[in-house]
Amino acid sequence: MPREIRLLTTPTGLPRPEDFEIAEAPVPAPAEGEVLLRNRFFHVFAALRSLLAGGVKGAPFPPVRPGDALFGPAIGEVVSAPDGSGLRPGELVFHWLGWREYAVSPVGQCVPLGDTLPDPVAHLSQGLTAYAALAGNVSPGDTVFVSGGAGAVGTMAGQVARLLGAGRVVGSTGSPEKGERLVAELGYDAAVIRGADSLDRQAAPISEQLGKAAPDGIDVFVDTVGGEQLQAALAAARPGARFVLAGALSGQMAANASGTTAEVELDVYQLILKGVVMRGLRIPDGLRTEWLDRFGGWLRTGEIVFPHVRVPGIENAARALQEVIGGRHLGTVVVEL
Length: 337
Ligand SMILES: NC(=O)c1ccc[n+]([C@@H]2O[C@H](COP(=O)([O-])OP(=O)(O)OC[C@H]3O[C@@H](n4cnc5c(N)ncnc54)[C@H](OP(=O)(O)O)[C@@H]3O)[C@@H](O)[C@H]2O)c1
Description:
Blueprint: E1 3-7, E2 20-24, E3 34-44, H1 48-52, E4 74-80, E5 92-95, E6 102-106, E7 111-112, H2 127-134, E8 143-146, H3 152-163, E9 168-173, H4 176-185, E10 190-193, H5 206-213, E11 218-223, H6 227-236, E12 237-245, H7 249-252, H8 268-274, E13 277-280, H9 287-301, E14 308-312, H10 317-325, E15 332-336
Parallel strand pairs: 8-9, 8-11, 9-10, 11-12, 12-13, 14-15
Antiparallel strand pairs: 1-2, 3-4, 3-6, 3-15, 4-5, 5-7
Helix pairs in contact: 2-3, 2-9, 5-6
């Protein structure tokens, strides 16, 4: 019998494996206009915590309630598709119904992978987010700071910044070991280590570390964390710096808070006096095609890598989520079915 991961109870703090169950469910029957898919991979991502905790008002994704199957980016193989849909059995598509072995999805929500990328799993990369934050925003020689540098977005952002001409790239992460990997493998020149915010460990304040890692200041900030790291970036900003706010892991991952808000206190005088431009990231329609063309080209020439961890089996998915939240991995974490 096929299996899926369902939420058992709304987590009171950070989600734990016991908040989920692996339920058996018959192979779903597609209705008119729907495609039956057998999933091959799905993405395990920390931001799910906000959806499990009730969701964020205005967000494009609904909350997950007890009894619901989880969802998220997935690669599925078409088992059957309606006539005239253009989809063929055996073809791989991107869709949003991960966390289950079989899914039915409306035709319009299944995107054929084609052959732009050499490996289907690379379609689960969060590089599009990094590209949307950086393309047209980085000038040759710029210093770029990426918070959450070891996450799915951040491991792509350092490399993309470098390929787009950045002169110096600094990333933040949760451990010195991951910091070394950012520098050795992923295009970063230096890493700063988050400490006092959530890990039971002494570390110098991010602002102090960033002052040393980028002594002349930063021109571009790709923020996936917020909080202390956003404050530090503002203190380090050069005049006219561009800040792109993509995520808010410091709020989403806060063990003692709801995970659905991400507040931060900023010195507005610094924003004004430095003329910092700050925007929230919305990925423009149509950018995906441009990104996939460039990503595929860079993968084939070896100029970029897709850092990811493959966890085998749906039975390990809830544990994988806990590990992602705990910062145990580097890059995109996928469950392989
Ligand atoms: N705007 C958009 O279109 C868009 C698209 C995709 C993602 N996002 C957002 O971007 C953010 C990053 O996504 P992602 O997929 O890269 O994340 P991810 O890979 O799921 O991030 C996991 C990492 O978060 C870090 N982390 C855990 N607790 C933290 C804490 N308390 N403070 C700071 N970092 C913590 C850990 O890395 P370390 O231990 O190394 O710090 C962990 O490995 C999320 O907020 C997501 O919602 C936005």
